[in-house]
From TrEMBL, chain A:
PANTHER family, sorted: SUCCINATE DEHYDROGENASE 2 FLAVOPROTEIN SUBUNIT, SUCCINATE DEHYDROGENASE [UBIQUINONE] FLAVOPROTEIN SUBUNIT, MITOCHONDRIAL
Membrane-spanning ranges: none
Coiled-coil boundaries: 516-543
Organism: Streptomyces spirodelae
Gene3D superfamilies: FAD/NAD(P)-binding domain (3.50.50.60), Fumarate reductase/succinate dehydrogenase flavoprotein-like, C-terminal domain (1.20.58.100), Succinate dehydrogenase/fumarate reductase flavoprotein, catalytic domain (3.90.700.10)
Protein name per Swiss-Prot or TrEMBL: Fumarate reductase/succinate dehydrogenase flavoprotein subunit
GTP-binding keyword on record: no
NCBIfam families, alphabetized: PRK07803.1
Signal peptide from the UniProt entry: none
Amino acid sequence: MAHVERHQWDVVIVGAGGAGLRAAIEAREQGLRTAVICKSLFGKAHTVMAEGGIAASMGNVNEGDNWQVHFRDTMRGGKFLNQWRMAELHAREAPERVWELETWGALFDRTPDGRISQRNFGGHEYPRLAHVGDRTGLELIRTLQQKVVSLQQEDFKESGDYEARIKVFQECTVTQILKEHNPEDGEPDRVSGVFCYERESGRFFVLEAPAVVLATGGIGKSFKVTSNSWEYTGDGHALALLAGASLINMEFVQFHPTGMVWPPSVKGILVTESVRGDGGVLRNAEGERFMFDYVPDVFKEKYAESEQEADGWYEDPDNHRRPPELLPRDEVARAINAEVKAGRGSPHGGVFLDVSTRMPAETIKRRLPSMHHQFRELADVDITAEPMEVGPTCHYVMGGVDVDSDTAAARGVPGLFAAGEVAGGMHGSNRLGGNSLSDLLVFGRRAGLYAAQYAREHAGSRPRVGDEQIDGAAAEALRPFGVGSAKADEEAQGPAENPYTVHQELQRSMNDLVGIIRREEEMSEALERLAELRERARRAKVEGHRQFNPGWHLALDLRNMLLVSECVARAALNRTESRGGHTRDDFPEMDREWRRANLVCTLAAAEGAAGAAGGDAEAGRAGRIALRRREMPPIRKDLLELFEKEELIKYLTDEELTSE
Amino acid sequence: MLPGPALTQPSHPENPLATGTEPQHKTPPAGSRPAGVHTSTRAAIAEPHLRTDRWWLAPAATAFGLLAFVVYSTWRAFANTDYYHAPYVSPFYSPCLADNCATMKGGPNWGLFGEWWGLSPALIILIFPLGFRLTCYYYRKAYYRGFWASPPACAVAEPHKKYTGETRFPLILQNIHRYFFYAAMLVAVILTWDTVLGFRNEKYEWGHMGLGTLVFLANIGLIWAYTLSCHSCRHIVGGRLRHFSKHPVRYRLWGWVGKLNERHMLLAWASLLSVALADFYVYLLATGTITDPRLF
Amino acid sequence: MTTDVHHGAGPGSEGIGGAVSGEAPDATRPETSYDAHFKVWRGDVDGGGLEDFTVEVNEGEVVLDIIHRLQATQAPDLAVRWNCKAGKCGSCSAEINGRPRLLCMTRMSVFDRAETVTVTPLRTFPVVRDLVTDVGFNYEKARQVPSFVPPPGLGPGEYRMQQEDVGRSQEFRKCIECFLCQDTCHVVRDHEENKRAFAGPRFLMRVAELDMHPLDAAEDAGLDRKSTAQDEHGLGYCNITKCCTEVCPENIKITDNALIPLKERAADRKYDPLVWLGNKIRRRTT
């Protein structure tokens, strides 16, 4: 039988972005042996793409800021669908998490009195985003990376081995979470480790551990126009599903309003929101600042009605209302979409985002250096002299693993934890800019802490990984080479498929049919296409051997993307309202009844985690995802009291309001 | 060799999965051990470099320029003649520190070295500007690339078997650049005085100017700009501080020197040319080839 | 050993990926699209060579787009490392026409249409496969630079630093760790044996970054970064020929702002009796 190398660890973290590294640092500081697995090189995680900043109510620029205001902004941004406890913890703990980064060597931009500078951002009432120019994500990842190295240096001094207590497995991918029967009666199976392959050699290995933290990020690579990198194939979402956990809020996908639209090869690459936070404005082809026409009723009192008023805000925010360009991302993305549809778009199908007429060239270069660089290098556009062309791009998934708010433990799978983009609930139906990085830090730390606690509690009865599970996982991973037992039924089913082709068709389907504006017929069609693609993906074949073979990696990722895409499409079809990152053409209004409901995705067929190799075509057509509706827990009273009654009426049902 | 990549390599004696998808490795051939980009673990590419642009142009031009200056300055420094024509003294011979100097009224000739110095007095003083330029961070780059081919250009393999950089004698002496900088400041002060003396006429009366005065003004401007744009200067003025906020004046100076420093290469060449030109101008006057056009 | 294989983009040669590169038979192709000639190094540590490809190029594309098109249509197992495709992560480092570059930031428009574009892996690190190299050297070196030492007595939230004091280190923290500077540096590129003693520009810059950090307390903890730069990280090997600065995709002035200042700081410690004496006296008096 397969000889696969096994390593024993206390906590295994899947993913080395902001959440994963923060979790790893915490678990290691709790004294546990911690392994981190990352799909790319250490320090290249998608977190580096975050530009704007980390939202934390430190009150360095405006003393009026505090966690309650941050909580309120977060709930408003998420249209009250947030798990309120997560939003509360997030708002309370974010400042500590940011300050802690400084003690690890981070260098944020400063205020004149030497504290961390904070900038304005969409949906945030006060300047709140700690930042470093427009490369905050890079600073975050580098700081965490260097903190990991510093912990390794401590271990080296103690034991002579850098990797004694924290080790990063670079360029490795997890394809399955392994579980074993739970010795505690009546409890579901518990996590026993992960099955991985190493890109460089193609070899398989198993990390055995009682606690596994998922921190794999998002799902954007299922869409054609996206700001996400190749890694964002929904691995953690799918691994959790396959391990028996559930996903919530998967219908909410954030389309960032400003992605590059030209040239085609860079379509989707992010243009940071700081451009607008620092004074950039959106105009249509007629030169009109159209955002004034798109302020929804729930935000009417908070946003300026004239250009004059809006422009006054940058200098004197206390006596002016905010410019409508700084509405939450979902509103701006929809507005741009509507302008383009109405024929008022820019030459390449976007709208104009202009800073050149708003600030001197020197200021632009200082405050937005990487945007200046990005447009000059990739589009031959000098943003200090001419406007950028921008349009919506798939950016973030609000949905994710259903976790306990305090401990980040995945519900229903003992030993499994999730933090960061892969966890669901924190952002409700729409995430505010800047809340992502703080989410990574707050819940990354919590996941690491509680995973360590769990691992310690189970140190006496470490779970075992059975050989048959490993064999099953290995067989599934080798399928695309068309070898072994799977070979015969492959040939019976149809011709071999190119994984790249299947992937591109998946991206096109999701982009066109479950994109920014959704309709019932289109989503139904999407589900049919997904079923068909699932069949074709099973026949995906690759050439060559297992050493650094991108075709093979993609073939394996397809399983995850298809599962996650089905969750998105099914949940989106079911939710008959428009809210945050979910906009229905056929149900354009927000419905207070829907506010109380989470849609929960689980794996439909009882195929289990181990051997998905069998599975007949009929079951495939029916889909692999089961969907159910779940009531949200009522928001705690003292938190509700942070809002005016008139505002709550817009979101909560009469019943909820009177039940207090 | 360094330790391998972070991941422990599983040590399979043979292919246990028998899928035919496992990578197979031959053992590297024994025998000769090629170095540099041809080290056996690196991508097997026969060419020492694959650059298709005219990468050789810059080092060739540098080498040519420097060589031309060396030839000219050697000739002029050893010539020991035609370096003074009132009121101008060639920058190669200033200050003139031996008894055998030409008489320069009010000029920088102090017979510090006395009578025994029989060689050209230029050789005494040229040590300092020469040392300054030899240890200058820009010129180092220029001659390491242009003369030593270490490297000839970026990503173009260098021809040397061994390389120790500036870790050993004599190149470790490059670290004394800052002392040459101090000396170069003194020389620049004296050359400034020479320029001031240029505001006289042939009869040593003040308040006159000729074309030579302009040549000297341009030269001294460039000399100062080059000297002050020096990396050591930038360090001494403010670069060595940890907290700029506590030394606002030095921070400001550091900023200015930094601006000049960005053009260090340009200033290095411009001042090299101007110093040669100033000398040549004096040579032309002293040999009577031209006469200095007087402005007033 | 070198192998020569030619892959065409003519009719019928696109195999199972025919639908991928777009519809595009030549007649209907817009003028902005053309066929380019590529040479891509393929192989592994046992050997390999440049393979020829003819491949479609569209307006606005970068070299990484072309590599992806090759994967999708002609060479599905062509190994390349990449992530963000926006010049922010520093994964897709390679050498294009012999020059170290990021594949995602090299636009096809900089090449003549008739020009052959040669793409090889980084030539300073051991090759893994095709365009992928083992950059483990850099991670080893990263570990050897002692980390930031937090000032004792300052808790989280109590750090006060002025913008002008963090500016220098911030420039170095723009580094995306693409390791192009490490690749181009002749100290290790042309002399494998120097890898042991020399940290390379990226990590000497890291030493400079920490030494210029306004609150780093290494010195109080008995660590003199100025002299260790030379004694332990091989600063003396650098002969400031500036190739690191030339290739830096973030336009960090590595040589002028990090390496030379670090050399000057080392000189303060080791070759400047005046500074040494001054420090001695000052330490005595305070």
